[in-house]
User: Fold this.
Amino acid sequence: MISDFFETNNYFVDKKDGFQESCHIYNEKKERIGRIKQKFSFIQKVLPIAFVKSILPFNIEIRSANGGLEATISRKGSFLKSEIVIQDASGKKIGAINPNSSFSKPVFKILNTSNHVIAEICDVWKKSNFIINDSSENQIGSIDSKWSGKMKNAAISASGYTVNFMATYSNHEEKIAILSSAIALNMCFLN
Assistant:
């Protein structure tokens, strides 16, 4: 059965404070469409420091509201140079995240299975509005830490963020990889 989880263009993630193991995902109609579950290692529970979370192995699951697996993001090794893998619901690798740490302009590159850049998340250290560009540097989306539009007055945590895709962006597999990357970035690098 094919899921419609990735059919929407606006995802609202209710980020939990502290070391909660899950967050909820809403659509633009304020309907809960899924959740994000992160499995923590013993070291991550003992040392809940943002820097530690960004260099240790992790496993994040994106699940639909009915519990079905939609995608996973994981890092098996440690430190920033190890590969962050994105898999679809069937376990097939659909992409990877390559964090480029540079003091001038940090960028997270999202790669397809052939290691070609399909998108970049830029300006990630400003913690407010991030830009998602395709490989031709055209904006295809954004990540905003402020709730806006219909979600502004929702009874949801103020510490959430939105991931928005342009209405014309329709590549299903790349959308899974980009949304997964935005979630991993917020849970493991910016938290």
In short: The chain is about 15% helix and 40% strand.
